[in-house]
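In the current project phase, the collection of sequences with tokenised folds has grown. A representative record is quoted in full directly below:
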Amino acid sequence: MQKFNYARNALRYIINRIKIEEIYIPYYLCDVIRHAIFAENCKPIFYHIDDNFMPAQEFPINSFILYPNYFGICDKNVENLVNIYPKLIVDNAHAFYAKPCGFASFNSERKFRNVKDGAYLFLSNENSNFEPDLFRRKCFDFYHNKLKQTNLLNIDIPKTSIPFCYPYLAFDIKEADNLVKELKAKGLTIYRYWNRLPESYNEYKFYSRLVPIPLL
């Protein structure tokens, strides 16, 4: 295990150390990750994801692939992909307590705890000793029990998963905006992920209608 200030720098280290020349990355992704890839003179090859956050295509078996554990609810997707692609790199920035897996994976403590920085890089199947935040999981279950009937996401996660937030996919933009206003009125800070995507992309629904509810 190695420690970095930010998750993006953990990825830059992997690319530099392994001399990765090109890597598959999703369109639905934080800008700083793309910038980190460009900074290492690595070529990104973009891919789409489906409604369950799975890649919407197959990849060459030995290619390097970056897959984000979106909102910390994609442990099953990660497990499936790891069993197929030997050079899968898992972005666990939204899944700090997830077990290391794949060719490499990195976690971000600063998204879960009140620390200035703290990203951890694991190569292969190194062990981590992070104690799970059970209160966060209880908050997630509370929101899921309350909202699952109207949430358009099909959320099915293991009992051991500790998500970053509760992602609620609204029926339309108006419903999403109204929910954001309601949550902000209660004192919650709501971020929308990530930058605008073309409306023709399947991922546009996540950009425009997904509300990540903080687990406090």
